[in-house]
């Protein structure tokens, strides 16, 4: 018999899939690391399990404990699955700009969900960062995960995602392109790949309203760069410890409209039903066209599944309301 002992053992070893139509004008091959094949339908299952196992090993997370995290949904899903299998209670603190589907999904896997306002400063007591921290001081035997600064986040990608991409491309990968939020994916994968071949270029995809690109280029944390945006999962108004700016060769920013339109195009032109940050990632990759040449093998990572966006980027009324389609 061939089987996994529990659902957590099915995390990782996701396929690499060639893009054929959207990338037809590029000189190079583009391969997508297709993370929706994880059991929680996102790349975040990897780091969620790593963070929990490292917390168990260090003794911060004890049997019967409560796991608390501020999460846009995918990390919460990964943590919730692991909490169910391992017998912990899970509390997710989420911002109100996230899709309703994400909240419903977290509840479906047994998580308690607190919804907080988006348009407040990170240090405001109502923000989801502050609320998660406060709950962790109030609830006994609880552990605040803090994916932004938790080194197990990037470590998961250094230990699994990076080696998988290296092996699947037979060491031929020349560029890695990925959306940046907490920075765990770009930093962990980027570090591993550059250790194998220092010539590999790593590009981060950022969004308008986020501080990353300007900070990378100038070293200035410019508050004028911060304003509300629609794109989900990428960009930040803080500098998470998990973003290793030295590993990243450059950032390109994608507009909310382009990210939403390309999320639809991935589904309609490649049969890839994916989340909003995948739309941003592929559009960002196309913006980098001049950096690629004939023999390059460009790997782009797609973080999560389209089902979480049926009320938004896959809803034409919503798209029209936003002015993204006619
Ligand atoms: N896309 C989606 C849908 C995400 O949930 C996240 C995590 N915030 C990212 C991209 C960015 O990944 P990372 O946090 O590893 O930088």
What are the SSEs and their pairings?
Layout lengths: L15 E3 L10 E6 L9 H15 L7 E5 L3 H13 L2 E7 L4 H9 L3 E5 L11 H11 L3 E3 L6 H18 L6 E5 L4 H13 L4 E7 L4 H7 L31 E5 L1 H15 L5 H12 L9 E6 L13 H6 L5
Parallel strand pairs: 2-10, 3-4, 3-6, 4-5, 7-8, 7-10, 8-9
Antiparallel strand pairs: 1-2
Helix pairs in contact: 1-2, 1-5, 5-6, 8-9
What do you see in this structure?
The chain has 326 residues and is an alpha/beta fold. It folds into 2 domains: 7-37 and 152-322, 3-Layer(aba) Sandwich (Rossmann fold), CATH 3.40.50.1100; 43-144, Rossmann fold (3-Layer(aba) Sandwich). 37% of the residues lie in helices and 16% in strands. The strands form 2 sheets. A 6-stranded mixed β-sheet has the order 1-2-10-7-8-9, sandwiched between helices. A 4-stranded parallel β-sheet has the order 5-4-3-6, with helices on both faces. Helix 3 (100-108) links the parallel strand 4 (89-95) and strand 5. The longest helix has 18 residues, at 151-168. The model has no long low-confidence stretch (mean pLDDT 96). Bound molecules: 4'-deoxy-4'-aminopyridoxal-5'-phosphate (PMP). 4'-deoxy-4'-aminopyridoxal-5'-phosphate binds next to helix 6.
Top keywords for this entry?
10 strands, 2 domains, 326 residues, 6-stranded mixed β-sheet, binds 4'-deoxy-4'-aminopyridoxal-5'-phosphate, Rossmann fold, globular, alpha/beta
Major sheet summary line: 6 strands, mixed
Which structural class matches the secondary elements?
Answer: alpha/beta
The appropriate CATH architecture of the largest domain is: 3-Layer(aba) Sandwich
Question: What ligand molecules are bound, each kind once?
Answer: 4'-deoxy-4'-aminopyridoxal-5'-phosphate
Global mean pLDDT? 96
* Top CATH class of the largest domain: Alpha Beta
Strand adjacency order, main sheet: 1-2-10-7-8-9
Topology as a string of helices (H) and strands (E): EEHEHEHEHEHEHEHEHHEH
Coarse morphology: globular
End-to-end distance: 53 Å
**What is the CA-atom radius of gyration, in angstroms?**
19 Å
């Amino acid at each position: 018999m061939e089987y996994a002992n529990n659902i957590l053992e099915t995390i990782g070893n996701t396929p690499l899939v060639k893009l054929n139509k959207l990338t037809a004008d590029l000189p190079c091959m583009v391969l997508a690391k297709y993370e929706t094949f994880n059991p929680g339908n996102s790349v975040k299952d990897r780091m969620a399990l790593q963070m929990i196992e490292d917390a168990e090993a260090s003794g911060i997370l004890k049997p019967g404990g409560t796991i608390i995290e501020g999460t846009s949904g995918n990390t919460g899903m990964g943590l919730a699955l692991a909490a169910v299998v391992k017998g912990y209670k899970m509390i997710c603190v989420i911002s109100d700009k996230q899709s309703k589907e994400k909240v419903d999904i977290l509840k479906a896997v047994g998580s308690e969900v607190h919804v907080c306002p988006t348009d407040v400063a990170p240090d405001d007591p109502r923000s989801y960062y502050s609320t998660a921290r406060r709950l962790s001081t109030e609830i006994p035997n609880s552990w605040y995960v803090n994916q932004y600064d938790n080194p197990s986040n990037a470590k998961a990608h250094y230990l699994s995602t990076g080696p998988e991409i290296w092996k699947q491309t037979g060491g031929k990968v020349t560029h890695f392109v990925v959306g940046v939020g907490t920075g765990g994916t770009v930093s962990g994968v980027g570090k591993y790949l550059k250790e194998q071949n220092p010539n590999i270029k790593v590009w981060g995809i950022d969004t308008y309203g986020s501080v990353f690109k300007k900070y990378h280029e100038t070293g200035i944390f410019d508050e004028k760069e911060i304003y509300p945006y629609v794109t989900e999962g990428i960009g930040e108004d803080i500098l998470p410890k998990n973003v290793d700016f030295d590993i990243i060769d450059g950032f390109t920013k994608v507009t909310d409209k382009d990210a939403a339109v390309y999320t639809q195009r991935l589904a309609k032109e490649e049969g890839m039903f994916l989340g909003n940050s995948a739309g941003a990632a592929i559009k960002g990759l196309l913006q980098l066209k001049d950096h690629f040449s004939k023999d390059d093998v460009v790997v782009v990572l797609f973080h999560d599944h389209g089902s979480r966006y049926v009320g938004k980027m896959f809803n034409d009324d919503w798209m029209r309301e936003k002015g993204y389609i006619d």
